[in-house]
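User: I'm putting together a teaching handout on how multi-component assemblies are represented. Below are the sequence lines for each component of a complex, exactly as they appear in our records. Could you produce the 3D structure of the whole assembly as C-alpha cells, so the students can see both representations side by side? Please keep the chain order the same as the input.
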Amino acid sequence: MKNFYLGTIGALLLSLGAGVCHADDATQWLDRMGVALHEQDYQGTFIYMRGSQFETIQVTHQFKDGRELERLVYQNGEEREIVRRDNELVCYHPDPHNADFDHNLPLGPFSTAFNDNLATSQDLYRFSLHGKERIAGRTAVKLKITPRHDNRFGYRLWLDEETGLLLQSQLVDRNRVLELFQFSSIQIGQPIDTAMLNSSFGDTAAVHQLSPVITEVAEQQSSRPVWRVSWLPDGFKPMYSRQSNLLHFTDGLATLSVFVEQTGTASLPDMTTSHGATTVITRRLKNAQGQITVVGEVPVNMARRVAESVEPALF
Amino acid sequence: MSGKLKESVSALIDDEASEIEVHRLLRNLDSEQDLKKTFFIYQQIRSVLRNPSDKVQRIPGVDQQMKLFQRISDAIDDEETFTIDSPTHRNWLKPVAGLAVAATLLMTVGIVFNNETGPLPDSISTNTPTIAQNVDTQPVEPEPELRELDEEKQKLLREYLNKHDRMTRLKGNTHLVNYPPGQ
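Assistant: Of course. Below is the structure of the complete assembly, with chains in the same order as your input.
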C-alpha cells in the first residue's frame, strides 16, 4: 500500500514537472520562431484573412549580412508589391497614373518585435504545446497562447518543426477565429535569387514610402506625448512613438494605438467597429476640441475604457 | 439580409457573438423581418440537433415563434417606461430588454422541451469555429459601420488602421519606454 502511495505521489510530481516543461518547451519554440522570422531564407505564398479582408501574398525573404530583405507580391486586386529592407517599406505600383495609394497594408500576423516583447507577457498568457499537424506540406508543432483573463484574445500557432518558422496562425476570441494567416506553399532554406527581392515593375512604377525615414526619428526622438492614458488593461506598457499625438502600448502580444487629433471639429463620428480582431473606437475629446481614435487587438470593452481615459498630460 | 448578419445570428446562438455583432443585430432587428425568421430557424435547428431523434419533436414552428415574439414585443411596448436621465440609454435599452425577455422565454420553451425529450447527445457540437462561414463565396461587403461613412471618412479610418499596423509590425518604430503612461 505504501508503495502505491509513493507511486501515486511520484506520478503526480512527474506530471506536474511535465506540465512545467511543457510551458518551457512552448516558450523555447516561441524563441525559435522569433529567430526564424528574422533569419530564415524562404519563398512561398500565404493567405491572410482579417475581417472581410482576404489577401493572397507571395513572399520572398532573405537574411544576408545581418540585414532582412523581403518582397511581398499581392496576388489579388490592384497589382502592387512591397519591398522591405529591414524597417524601410516601399510600395510599388506598375501604373503611376492609376495607382491607388490608399490601400490596406496586410504584412502578416506578427510584429518583428514579437520575440523581444514576449518575456513581458508570461503572466498574462499560458503557453502550451498540442502535438503536431501538417501545414503546407511540412510538419508543424501546434502551440496555444491562452489569455489568463477574459480581457484579451488568444493565439494558435503552427511552427515548422525543422526551423521554427511560423506556418499558420489563428487569432481567436474564445473559439472563434478572428484572423487567419497560413502558408499554402513554402520553400525554406533554398538559395534566393537577388532579383526576387526587387520590384518587378521597372523604372516607370509609382513608388511610395510606407515607413518614415530615419532622419525624422532623430528630430523627434525627445518628444514626449502631450496626452496620457489613465487606464490600461493589466500588463500593457507604453512604447516609444515618433509622434506626440500617438500613444502606443503592448502587452508583448496584443497592441494598442491611441491617436489624438486636435482639430477644430471631430473628423469622424463617435463610433465603434472592428476589422477582424482589430477594434477601432473614435470619441470626441473631453473638455477640448478634437478626437481620440483607439485601434488595437483587444476586445471592445477594453478599447472603450482606454478611449474614455485619455486626458492631457501635465509635466 | 446580408451574409454578415446571418453569420452574426449564428454566432449569437452559439454564444460567440461579439459586442459589436449584438449591437448590429439589435439595430437591424426591427427593420428586417428576415432577420427574425433566421434567428428562429437557427434556434429551431439548434434545438433539433440537441434533441434525441427517438422522441417526437415538439418545438414550436417559426411562425409560432414569430407570433410569440411579436406578442412579447407588443407587451413590452405597452409597459410603462421608466424615466432615464440619458436619452441614449433609452434608445438601446428597450430593444435590448425586449430581445432579452423574448430570448429568455424562447430559451425557457426550448429547455422545457429538452427536459421532456432527454439529455443532449454528445456527438453533436454547435460550438465549432465559424471560420468556414467567413470564407464563403458571397461578395465581400464592408462592415456596416464603415459603409455608413463617406469616402473621405473611410479613408481616414483606413489611415489609422494602417498606421497602427505599421507601428505594430515594424521593430524600428517601437521599443519599450520607461516612463509610465501617467507622466
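A couple of points students might notice: Residues 84-145, 171-183 of chain B have pLDDT under 50 and may be disordered. Residues 3-142 of chain B form one domain.
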